[in-house]
Amino acid sequence: MDAETGAILALQILALCSIVAALLAYLMRQSRNATDEYETRNKRHVLVTSCDTSVGLQIALALYEAGYKVFAGLLDSSGISPSMKILRAIEQQKERQEDPTDANHGNPQDPEVRAHGQIVPLELDSTREDSLRACLDAVRAKLPAGEDGLWAVVHTGGLALPGVIERQPSSAWESMLRHNLVAPLRTARMFIPLLRVKRGRIILLGDSTTSYGTKAGTGLVAYSASRKAVEGAAEALKSELQSSGVDVVLLKPPPVNPLILYSSPVLKTSDVESGIVSSEGTWTAPISADAIQNSLIPALTSPCPRVAYEMVAKTRLFCK
């Protein structure tokens, strides 16, 4: 081998080594960033106001999977509702993963195991001032020592009462306004002091891009009106809270029937027919897991979140 060929070969080897070193540095940095992001999420507390609704429970579970510590609002946190059965199944699964005597338990170093956060059920009816006050006190009591702030409040309560506007009683309109508009405003007012501490954010559910209230014969005109009112309230609230550092973000659900979104979760029929309490709380979620993650996580983590995030309509089985 002559000197010129040797020099070229040496340069090629050096270039290859440089590429490998750069790749390793990039992978290490990505791993470190992922670890830092997990640690950041794990220190953040989020209140999901109504896990009695399908969309609320799905959001709470998505936050849990992403590593957040979730206060899950429930009308009866000690009851046997479908939501509580699913949440208890999640806790059982987590205990099995952490049990060192279980031969099949997960490795704590496994990212799938480590990524899980924590779910703390709390009693909450966001339509009642006294219940909101009691929940605020409970959240403060359950925050770690030295903490007095929330990263986010996600209002997932809602009510959809179908009926042709010409024949629907005005009491139904008032009920929907109380659940869909007044309740999130009451919740925001109650928790703004805790959110201000962390310069956190309020996340509200708006109307879907293709509103069911615009389709002939759906009978959801009053419901759609209440959801549009939430969007207007979110815009005004965002402006009002701008100086406090608290942001307001809208999540716009896909065109899924709101009677499904805000209904109680339904466990798989096989669990009911078997009569066996399953350790896997399986149910059919109304929105795809990807749609939740791709909208909810940026809404929570972006330093400058958008005014609204759209969810992609795609139903699939959600099993945890």
Automatic annotation (TrEMBL):
Residues 92-114 are annotated as: Disordered. InterPro entries: NAD(P)-bd_dom_sf (IPR036291), SDR_fam (IPR002347). It comes from the Eukaryota. Gene3D superfamilies: NAD(P)-binding Rossmann-like Domain (3.40.50.720). It holds the Pfam family adh_short. Keywords: Membrane, Transmembrane, Transmembrane helix. The chain crosses the membrane at residues 6-27. This is D-beta-hydroxybutyrate dehydrogenase, mitochondrial. It comes from Xylocopa violacea (Violet carpenter bee).
